[in-house]
Amino acid sequence: MKGFPEPKSELFQRTVGSAAFGVFSWRGRMTHDLAEPIPGAPALEVKTESTHALERLRASIFNFRRWSEPLKPHFAYGVLDKKEYELAHAMHLANHFSAFSAKT
């Protein structure tokens, strides 16, 4: 909604980025380096309380659902509509959640 601090070039977004999003969409899942930060974004607090992190995620989802303004281009994939952003975010979250093991 706000945009990304350091977008990849338009050429990258229209070629490699667009192709990557197409493959992820076709497969229905995304894989990426889970430790790689978003270019230019501030470092995440590693020791963040899980309840605080979950609340931030819930607030972000709530705000995204209510958002009716134009969306800024994705830093790697370029221009996405709301449905495409929903898919990108869902696949991204699923990829990160895969790093957690279930307690039995």
Mean pLDDT: 90
- Beginning-to-end CA distance, first to last residue: 38 Å
Name the structural class: mainly alpha
Beta-strand residue fraction: under 5%
Task: Give me the Rg, rounded.
Answer: 15 Å
Q: Which overall shape is indicated by the principal axes computed on the Cα atoms?
A: globular
Could you give a short description of this structure?
This protein is an all-alpha fold and 104 residues long. It is 49% helix and 0% strand.
Description:
- The chain has 104 residues and is mainly α.
- The protein has one domain.
- It has helices at 10-27, 50-66, 82-97.
- The longest helix has 18 residues, at 10-27.
Keywords summarizing the entry:
104 residues
Provide the fold topology.
Elements: H1 10-27, H2 50-66, H3 82-97
